[in-house]
Structure prediction request, 250 residues.
Amino acid sequence: MRPHVDRCAPDLPRVARITDTWEENYRTRTFVLDLRMEARPGQFVMVWLPGVEERPLSLISGDPVSFTVARVGPFTTALHRLQAGDRVWVRGPYGNGFQIRGEHLLCVAGGYGVAPMLFVAREALATGRRVTAVIGARTAEDLLFTQRFAELGCPVITTTDDGSAGMRGLATDGIRHVLERKPVDEVYACGPHPMLEAILQLCQAERLPCQLSWENRMRCAMGICGTCELDGWLVCREGPVQRWTPEEKS
Ligand SMILES: Cc1cc2nc3c(=O)[nH]c(=O)nc-3n(C[C@H](O)[C@H](O)[C@H](O)COP(=O)(O)OP(=O)(O)OC[C@H]3O[C@@H](n4cnc5c(N)ncnc54)[C@H](O)[C@@H]3O)c2cc1C
Prediction:
């Protein structure tokens, strides 16, 4: 059965049922809902569990709505306990999302940042572009989605801090590995802040445009409360994606 189409105002939470959920690795699960919404890669939804909390999660897809969640605290632990048939409340989509540009995209992901990158890759490939993926993690067991990118037909470079899978090193080492071999038009990335800061520096040095998705603590997601402010920038309204181009002063 097709998931029902979302026709409500995006700021009102809508109830949805989990239709499928599975383990991705020892602390990460994917959830698929019986809901669809028009969403761009890089946008996120606010997911509410009554009596627990409401938290932002990036979309892997808007049709059906699906997301991948790492268990880090009370909300994500409660979400991991849910099974197919259980209900969640969802509002959104929020945020600016990525702009798909150029012929050859380099998608770089750290941790659960692979979720929006998979959405970027699918959209880019659907419009005839080429995508290479760099997926970084601390160890082999933290790696996510390498198979799913490979199934899309993307070359995948994996890096681990301890060398237990792929190249030993950081995601930026994986980026350098790609840049030495083929030209890239734009870099897309989502992951921890230190990774994004290193990628920004690398792209500025290489004069290569990049789009980086920044996360921060968030409450209203509508630009009202200011909780997610980062250096004077509202992540929920003006972000989470920030684009840098060589034309800008660096
Ligand atoms: C735009 C956006 C998209 C996101 N997409 C995803 C996603 O696709 N999958 C996913 O697993 N998580 C995602 N997150 C993060 C997710 O919202 C948090 O992991 C979640 O809020 C943790 O809630 P909790 O109650 O389980 O843990 P908490 O007790 O709230 O936090 C546990 C630990 O995580 C840290 N933390 C919590 N939220 C953040 C944050 N936003 N940035 C950095 N550190 C944080 C806390 O400081 C603490 O150390 C996203 C966040 C944002 C802002």
In short: The mean pLDDT is 94. The chain is about 20% helix and 35% strand.
